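Researcher: Quick sanity check before group meeting.
Model: Go ahead. Protein one:
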Amino acid sequence: MSPPSSGKRAPIELTPEEIAAVRSWVIHEDASVIAFNKPSGLSSQGGRIKAHTLDDLLWAFMRSNGKRPELVHRLDRDTSGVILAAKTKPAAGFLGKALQARKFRKTYQALIASAPEPRAGTIDTPLLRQEVGRESYMRAVTADTPGAQDSESRYRTLSESEDGALVELEPKTGRMHQLRVHMASIGRPLIGDVRYGGALTFAGRAAPRLMLHASKLSFPHPDGGVTVVEAPLPEDFEALKAAAGL
């Protein structure tokens, strides 16, 4: 997945509440990068909904020279968790190259209706992007399908109960909706995933959203070494997890 483009844009006026909110989501900051625990329901960038995206909210961190952080990668609107922005042009260039070279290691947690068989494994089914009206979908296909993209995800079961399972997911490639489609392809769609067949209830409760959280990000830091940033599970995720005894 290519890094988002920043483009030259005029600063956006933000309310004090918006500025306070985006500042409250910061989970790591240093001279080169800033990482957020993005809430579910917020588009990373360029959503069709006429509401501010995380990209817009980065104007809260504008410096005196008119520059502001740039997002390095994206998360789906309904996915919560770690997302990274670069604070300087050199950092953005460095991280963009590291992302393309697949040097980012992303770890997610998700809720599913029952543990997969086997409990841990790799899914390498190719994926094909399809446009249906104004929506984009991914579909699991055979390798000889025209336009198929190589895709690889790893999964492991962290805990299970009669009500469901908590799994850790790691995408080795960066295809759109990859984890969601790969888990659905083995009959374990993510809870709350309306688009790919996930159940809308879990442990007797309504699933308020897609139950997918980017819990950890490991990346080469522009100033040297490897940095690991972790985002705690949000309250809605913790509540469903606890309801299922996971």
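Researcher: Fine. The other one?
Model: Protein two, sequence then structure:
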Amino acid sequence: MDPVYFDNAATTPVDPQVLETMLPYFTEDFGNADAAHQFGRNCKVAVEDAREEIARLINAEPSEIIFTSGGTESDNAAIKGVFSALSPAGKNEIITSPIEHHAVMHPAESLKRQGAKIVYLKPNSDGIITADQVKEAITEKTAVVSLMHINNEIGSINPVNEIAAVCSEAGVPFHSDTVQSVGKIPVDVKEIGLNMLSISAHKIYGPKGIGVLYVKNGTPWIPWLQGGSQERRRRGGTSNIPGIVGLTKAMALCDKNMEANTQKFVALRERLIDGLEKRFEGKFTINGPKDGGVPHIINIGFKTDSNQGLDGEMLLLNLDIEGVCVSNGSACTSGATEPSHVLQEIVGDETIANSSIRVSFGKQNNEKEIDFFLDKLEGVLDRMMKVAS
């Protein structure tokens, strides 16, 4: 069997229909969308059509859609933009959580140099932040609340509707990183009540290097990236036309096929968990929600009969050698392997946190690949546990 790819939460293959949509904008309609001639006008039409379609898909206004280079830029622009707008008036507190993506945590931390105070809300064992926690944390100095919709490592779903209602009542802008939710579950910005959200194309079978920042009209926000007059002076830089049309097509396809994809992910998840329980009973644990999270992400920790941990990095590498590509719950920094910041927060057992892998499904995966993974995992774990015991 060809190598099996179970790291779709990191990135996905570009859908052939998306690629087909993009190709003309590399060679035929290659103009600069801000040029006055016909090559530019054709591209400008493509950009504005895309803006309208994306707005329709998330129930926003076209004027609220800003094209960016991806989720990281969108997160930076949201947090720094609101802080810049409100901090001169004394609003210098940023409420977030310690299990956010680093694209949220690092920009927030960087603002400490400008007087920001970061308030971290502790998630429960499933990785959830409640609306009551947010309500209790908000003060008259709160500038922005930023909490992700779906956690990229454990698949937990925050109650963003409830959190948004609390923020709205307090008059505090609410930003959510929806990189793992848009295209996977319904996201309606008006129904949820969001002020800002971030989208990345390459998580939903679109190209890398393109994303969206939604900013609700009237939200206090100052553009973060200056340059030209593109995006109504809200984000300078020549428009990435192939990326924009690719992102739009990817979102439209995911919206159209959302129910079918969800059913597939549910079936794959059930088959994987059933196989784990039959083969590794008592030797594995699900990190985060076993039920109630999204079906396309599952984080699994392993241990030996003597409750000793395994080397998560070696587990990943051994699986890779066997033709299975997953990601690790650990990150290598300065030569030292440490658990991910997410697992450090929600897993009480550091042994498990160090022995975990994330499996994330894509629409191209199938049940035969699950069985192949389980077979290879059994052999790898057998060898590693003999060494560890």
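Researcher: One line on it for the slide.
Model: The mean pLDDT is 93.
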